[in-house]
Amino acid sequence: MTSSRRVASRSVLYAVLGALALVVIFPLAWMLLTSFKTDADAVRNPYALPDPFSFEAYQQLLLSGQQPIFLWLWNSFAAATLQTVLILATASMAAYALARLDFAGKRIIFGLIIATLLVPPVVFLIPNYLIVENFGWLDSILAITVPGAASAFGVFFLRQFFVGLPVEVEEAARIDGAGEFRIFLQVALPLAKPALATLAVLSFLGNWNDFLWPVYVLLSPENMTLQPGLAMLQGAYRTHFGVVMAGAVIASVPVLVLFAFAQRQIVDSVAGAAVKG
């Protein structure tokens, strides 16, 4: 390939990537700008810069005391963190057993786990609700963390990673007298840090952004998480667009911070999967 063709192909690639970046950035920028508008300005000029530039939405949301936004934020963070820890614990042990241990029915069990990924999540809504109600977990953090702690995707994702690990490392530990659980804790898990970090981010986001399930099982405003709480900001006859967008900005900040810290691990996980593939 000549240098001129190489420059042209690279220019096209950069143009496509730039266009995709604009597609991703535009909704975020529009959300941020709208959060600094008054209601009248948001309706009159939805895609223009704020005129005037106003902090009224943030003052109403954070300082008025009408909505317990900080309590919703804490509830969401606590629920997402707890469910992430539970998913990492259960999925890593199940995935390692399916990848490394030999026992009767292993292929059938793994097939059944994969089959659950084909079932729409809404199908489990009523059964999970009845289970949570029978356990007396309604309107509590357990209701929005325990039912999702068994992650079929997490088991599949980590199993594929464990299968790609070199067996020689585990055999060396086994020769030194280490048992299976010790090998799992001290050999397999440290090597799986990129995959665990990726699964942790995906699990955290899944719980953080969940709207439908908390609406059914959380009954009191003080126990609400952020997503159903923000939905309460929309009135039946009037929507304060600036306040709604300010709430969306606040909900986005923890997610962006989490991704910034875990970005390297996620890239390493994806790159490792590409090399193995």
Question: Can you lay out the helices and strands and say which pair or pack?
Answer:
Blueprint: H1 3-35, H2 39-44, H3 56-62, H4 69-100, H5 106-116, H6 125-135, H7 152-163, H8 167-175, H9 180-191, H10 193-208, H11 212-217, H12 226-231, H13 241-276
Summed up:
Helices cover 71% and strands 0% of the residues.
Structural description of this entry:
- The protein is mainly α and 277 residues long.
- It is built from 13 helices and no strands.
- The protein has helices at 3-35, 39-44, 56-62, 69-100, 106-116, 125-135, 152-163, 167-175, 180-191, 193-208, 212-217, 226-231, 241-276.
- Helix 3 (56-62) crosses helix 13 (241-276).
- The longest helix has 36 residues, at 241-276.
- The model has no long low-confidence stretch (mean pLDDT 86).
Can you tag this structure with a few keywords?
single chain; 277 residues; mainly alpha; MetI-like fold
Distance between the termini: 27 Å
**Would you tell me the overall average pLDDT?**
86
CATH fold category name of the domain at 67-232: MetI-like fold
Report the portion of residues in β strands: under 5%
Under the CATH scheme, the architecture of the domain at 67-232 is: Orthogonal Bundle
Output the helix-strand order.
HHHHHHHHHHHHH
Largest sheet: none
Radius of gyration: 23 Å
The percentage helix is over 70%
Query: Count the helices. How many?
Result: 13
CATH class of the domain at 67-232: Mainly Alpha
The assigned structural class equals mainly alpha
- Strand segment count: 0
- CATH superfamily annotation of the domain at 67-232: MetI-like
Large-scale geometry: globular
Low-confidence stretches: none
